[in-house]
Amino acid sequence: MSTQLVHKHRWMALIIVAGLSACNTPDPELIDTTFPDRIAFTAPRQYPEGIAYAPTLDKFLVSSLTQGKVGSVDRNGVYTDVIFNDSQLIAAVGIKVRNGLLYVCNGDLGVSEKSTTASAMKTAGLFVYDLSTNQPVRRVNLASLLPTANHYANDIAFDNQGTAYVTDSFAPVIYRVPADANQAPTILRRDTLFTGQNVNLNGIVYHPDNFLIVGKANEGKLFKVDLVNPSSTSAVSPITLSAPLPSCDGMLLYNNELYVVHERTKMARVTSSDGWKTATVARVDPSGYEDATTNTEVNGSIYALNARISEVSAAAMTKNPSSLTASAYSIKKFQP
């Protein structure tokens, strides 16, 4: 065989191999970027309360009230521990992801394997982890701002500058945590409207018109909190709702519509045309929510976490954390 013919065959082989390699390269337009309407996952004794979506991982993150950790759930329902070796994280409650960082509310209902007599019902903190290393980068003790009160840090929202606002379900306050770790946290607002029995303030969102919306679970009410002058007597005002939202829990503001998990069995889409002085419960999705707590947004869809939270409440009331043995949970898409 001539040298010229050998070279020709080699070039043809290279072209075929290159073609096969190209065929094995996923077409970006064909990659599935959606999540199923329902994702079941198994995580022994997880009892998650918070859920967030991590774009860098393309996975959901879920917290744990019983083990003080955070894990990921992919679209196939595979659970993997992410933050699991922080002895100071007693119970991971509400979580949010921002700029590659995971923010976790640290609380304690007395049902965590890390609970102590001193920490139960007395813990409020905001912990921050770098999702590229899964290591803590900041821990903020919020309970120290009101040392004699009961505490339970519940949920987080951020303004455009990265300042975090945290609700406390047992103390009638909203905390303000500056993005700059050199600046001390403060109590943004302490108000008698936030007092009551059992779980008070719960979900919280930031509105780009520079105010917060917070939910009060035990009354099914929403409040608007002005950030321009949060210390003024009129800074906190009830939002007049077209229908109550009993046991309102986690909330999400998306396209100026508020999605509220309530009664542990429903998610409502709430709208307003007057700057959230009043609001209309425009749609309630009543199916597929089982002991749901809170929600998150992925690619324009809203997902809620079915967390078995009633079991946690019962264990906390009876002081019987050993009763918490479940492993099956799920994530459910809101049906508009």
**Percent helix among the residues?**
under 10%
Q: CATH class, please?
A: Mainly Beta
Largest sheet features: 5 strands, mixed
Strand content: 35-45%
Tell me what you see in this structure.
This protein is mainly beta and 336 residues long. The protein has one domain (38-333): TolB, C-terminal domain (Neuraminidase, 6 Propeller), CATH 2.120.10.30. Helices cover 10% and strands 43% of the residues. The protein has two helices and 26 strands. It has helices at residues 3-24, 309-318, and strands at residues 38-42, 51-54, 59-63, 70-73, 79-83, 91-98, 101-107, 122-123, 125-130, 135-141, 151-158, 164-168, 173-177, 186-190, 201-207, 211-216, 221-226, 236-238, 240-241, 251-254, 257-262, 266-271, 278-285, 292-298, 301-306, 328-333. A five-stranded mixed beta sheet has the order 8-11-12-13-14, with no helix packed on it. It has a five-stranded mixed beta sheet with strand order 19-23-22-21-20, with no helix packed on it. Strands 1-26-25-24 form a four-stranded antiparallel beta sheet, with no helix packed on it. A hairpin with an 8-residue loop joins strand 13 and strand 14. The longest helix has 22 residues, at 3-24. It is globular and about 45 Å long. It starts with a helix and ends with a strand.
Task: Give the arrangement of secondary structure elements.
Layout: H1 3-24, E1 38-42, E2 51-54, E3 59-63, E4 70-73, E5 79-83, E6 91-98, E7 101-107, E8 122-123, E9 125-130, E10 135-141, E11 151-158, E12 164-168, E13 173-177, E14 186-190, E15 201-207, E16 211-216, E17 221-226, E18 236-238, E19 240-241, E20 251-254, E21 257-262, E22 266-271, E23 278-285, E24 292-298, E25 301-306, H2 309-318, E26 328-333
Parallel strand pairs: 8-11, 19-23
Antiparallel strand pairs: 1-26, 2-3, 3-4, 4-5, 6-7, 7-9, 9-10, 11-12, 12-13, 13-14, 15-16, 16-17, 17-18, 20-21, 21-22, 22-23, 24-25, 25-26
